[in-house]
């Protein structure tokens, strides 16, 4: 019943029954009618609360934009973001990546100037991926991965000098540096040689750490590589100053295409299903997370992100006392751009919605190609 209906209803009830009482009726003015209507409505509302139904009234808690923001368990901040950078061995290169809108591959002579406006806007961290382009740069062992003059080690040293306060993460893998494009060293039959791969991966991680990386992040998914890296960091006396972030739950799938275009890391044969996790393997992911925590990981990462929110939640449950990262991968980013371009939704709104879902699931660190956009959007 509307408020105006209440007024009319009360007016009708109180109408005098005799013409002799017309003068008395004049005492019933509009304000008294409204007052009785308000009293009636208030009594009705009180009866609802007495009946225990007041808990159903939620709108007031998020009617204002700031109040809506307060409903989030964690809100996106600039310090949560890590920006992926593709560094090539061509020092003057600055090339757009067709399948990754707005992203570029760049050489050492370009990276400092490229980052300057982003740092001014609040960029705190980058993750480096090496992209060797020289014809002889790749071999079966990924020798160029820890070349002291290679793109990653050179970029670490350069960025440490140019931006001393920036947190530098180095992705650790062999796929960009091997002729076969797989994430380790292979047996003669083409299967992964886990023992040799772990030894090689841990050596590469050490080279990046000794060059000045604040964090090494092995993404190869070889069994036991976290323990091997941690032991070598301890032996070298630098474990106390190097963060070990494990791609603990990295799933195989079709969301990595744009990244492989950017990094030149597509396998020359076969696929990575035997070492990356199957999309339905929630139990395997939980076991991998538990294993990497026990082997000394400081941060757990889940990759991809938005299709694996349950795994992010699991990671936060299993590693409740440690940070959880999520990689919002190239395919997820490219899909949002494509759909926004087609008019399906607004780009900014969807970028926030996807990222807030990642945070809600339990992540507090997000590797995102949207980082430059968020640096602007979070200012408004």
Automatic annotation (TrEMBL):
In this chain, 5-aminolevulinate 2 is annotated as bound at 330, 369
State the Pfam families in the record.
ALAD
Q: Is Zinc set as a keyword in this record?
A: yes
Write out the residues that bind 5-aminolevulinate 1.
260, 272
Cofactor(s) the protein needs: Zn(2+)
EC numbers: 4.2.1.24
User: Which GO molecular function entries does the Swiss-Prot or TrEMBL record give?
Assistant: porphobilinogen synthase activity; zinc ion binding
The EC class name is lyase
For the region Disordered, give the residue spans.
14-35
Pathway field: Porphyrin-containing compound metabolism; protoporphyrin-IX biosynthesis; coproporphyrinogen-III from 5-aminolevulinate: step 1/4
Q: Cite the active-site annotation.
A: 250, 303
One Gene Ontology term of the biological-process aspect is: heme biosynthetic process
InterPro entries in the cross-refs: ALAD, ALAD_AS, Aldolase_TIM
Q: Which reaction does it catalyse?
A: 2 5-aminolevulinate = porphobilinogen + 2 H2O + H(+)
Q: Where is the composition biased (Polar residues)?
A: 17-34
One GO CC annotation: cytosol
**Which keywords are on file for this protein?**
Heme biosynthesis, Lyase, Metal-binding, Porphyrin biosynthesis, Zinc
Which positions does UniProt annotate for Zn(2+) binding?
173, 175, 183
Superkingdom of origin: Eukaryota
Function per UniProt: Catalyzes an early step in the biosynthesis of tetrapyrroles. Binds two molecules of 5-aminolevulinate per subunit, each at a distinct site, and catalyzes their condensation to form porphobilinogen.
Q: How does it assemble?
A: Homooctamer.
Q: Which family does it belong to?
A: Belongs to the ALAD family.
- Name of the protein in its database record: Delta-aminolevulinic acid dehydratase
Question: What organism does this protein naturally occur in?
Answer: Oleoguttula mirabilis
Identify the coding gene. HEM2
